[in-house]
Amino acid sequence: MNVPEMVDSETVPAPSPAAGPQGPAAIEVAHLIKLYKTTRAVDDISFRIARGSVTGLLGGNGAGKTTTIAMIMGLVLPTSGRVQVLGHAMPEQSAEVLGRMNFESPYVDMPMRLTVRQNLTIFGRLYAVKNLAERIERLASDLDLKDFLDRANGKLSAGQKTRVALAKALINQPELLLLDEPTASLDPDTADWVRQHLQNYRKTHDATILLASHNMLEVERLCDRVIIMKRGRIEDDDSPDQIMARYNRTTLEDVFLDVARGRVAEGTSS
Amino acid sequence: MSEITVHRAISWHRIQAMVLRYWYLLMSSWPRLLELIYWPALQIITWGFLQNYIAQNDNFFARAGGTLIGAVILWDILFRGQLGFSISFLEEMWARNLGNLMMSPLKPIEFLISLMIMSLIRLAIGVIPMTLLALFFFDFNFFAIGLPLIAFFCNLIFTSWAIGIFVSGLVLRNGLGAESIVWTLMFGLMPLACVYYPVSVLPGWLQWIAWTLPPTYVFEGMRALLINQTFRSDLMVWSLAINVMLLIASFAIFLALLRSAKRVGSLLGGGE
């Protein structure tokens, strides 16, 4: 496999305005590449995500979803390409935007020995949340955390931990929320409840949500737009309805299987 | 003040948040709290009795009363200062919380300052009882060293932070597989820092290396004070100058290792 030369981010062209829905962009990604030694985790992807939208990153294991989100967050440096978040270049201008975004991921935990309230207090302070005690009470009420607010995080069930992680992700009322498998390991009832909450949050705060998921039903229900990734590349990018129509399928799960098994969509074959 | 200036300034609010996090952590586990006191206490009792025994049989040690106990306490400041810094850092790795922190507005310098403050808190919990034991069991008043003690303490704690920052960078970059460096690196300095003996006992070429280490000046200074009742300010100035260079270098290395960690994606996992 050829290893491309490092590209100076200054020389990479800005993403095309036609790369995604119109309107002010929350995220703009241009020619993003990430190599781990000789593995191409992300292979020259570009997209633009409008503010106030919910976009799903779909793909199997190793498709590059988590690496893409991590590069958007600034936790992983791209090999080349450019990322802009809320109008600022990442990671160079991360200080300008980190307080306006937040994330939840199964790759990170909340400290186990601290109580839920202590954890939320610390993250609230890190994000300089005003009226923090009130904010925590509000989140506890919204996310049904009151019964275990003073219990150590390590003593919670998987579902409770996910709700706490979501509370942490919402503590600063972010304009941009990045979620990696937000309902993984949840029972259907709790997962549905979390999705409902995310939908409400998006509506009430006009927030932008980018989520990576294996859960097709979740993506169908939550997302205005789906970006399907495979082996680090974007295979398709459209609304869930359009994608299902293009593949002549009634569910995204069937589309996912088509993509995973190399069955090409109508009108997309070259 | 412009928005950018505000964002780039160090936030004491965020530093307080991190110190609070470590304080909660410390208070949540009494065995860990006890451990902070247990080892220094054991050290001082063992070495204190040894000092008493030697002093009974040797005129030099009888005259240089307290050099061994003083060395033990100063060594503990150096060692436990670094450990206090590094363990707080390791707590983030063990908790897989680093991603949350790196994704928050917390800046690396704020993170490191909070670790420094925590190292002082942990050190105080361990060393103050140690000095009290030295006073009651061995009639050695550590605080009677007076103002020079401030110079000794500052120089040792600066070295401990420099090493703590460097080691944390290594763990950040290489994951918990590099954890053992946290516990062992400082011991590598012990023979060369001349904790329990003067630099003059080393071979000539090793003396040259020993003088590149800031703690060497402190331990020499302590012996000069306790044996000859002379405060060697020149030694403290040299120690401080090398410490400043070490701190700058360790911070630069930490940032380089953080960048490297982001390049290889190790912040996402944090495991081995």
From TrEMBL, chain B:
MF terms (GO), sorted A to Z: ABC-type transporter activity
GO cellular component terms, A-Z: plasma membrane
ABC transmembrane type-2 domain sequence ranges: 31-261
Glycoprotein is among the record's keywords: no
Membrane topology: Multi-pass membrane protein
Keyword Translocase: no
Compartments, record wording: Cell inner membrane; Membrane
Keywords attached to this entry: Cell membrane, Membrane, Transmembrane, Transmembrane helix, Transport
Main location: membrane
Transmembrane annotation, as ranges: 60-79, 111-138, 150-172, 181-199, 235-258
Entry's family note: Belongs to the ABC-2 integral membrane protein family.
Protein name as catalogued: Transport permease protein
Species this protein is from: Bradyrhizobium jicamae
